Amino acid sequence: MKGICSVCKNRKVVYRSRKTGKAICPNCYRKDPFTHECCSKCGEVKHVAARSESDEAICINCYQMARYQDPSTHECCSKCDKVKPVHARDKTGRAICLNCRRKDPSTHECCSKCDKVKPVHARDKTGRAICRNCWRKDPSTQAR
User: Fold this and answer.
1) Hey, where are the domains in the chain?
2) pTM of structure
């Protein structure tokens, strides 16, 4: 649901914090030290992205790496015909890998910050496209 985040005061998708009961956006939630624990895989204290079967914390980096290496998440890409992790699906539900998704011109728009035509990584409050490089410089914009 859209609302005003109680932390950053921006209007975006928000959830209720289990700790405070207040509305909080995903970015602020991930930054909240309350959501951080020691990752059972790498040992770093980070936001908990998932939990193991034994309820141990797993950070986003370790979770994504495990998913990338897990062959059960791989399918044949409908664009390049290589078996890779699924990054997206087309309108008919066929798998698309990350490389083909980035190359797809339908995902490219003129970035509102640098004026270059690149894949859209995020959008600003008015819905204008922002590329990955510009988003990294100012991650306060709403990711995809």
Assistant:
1) 1-31, 35-69, 73-103, 105-139
2) 0.56
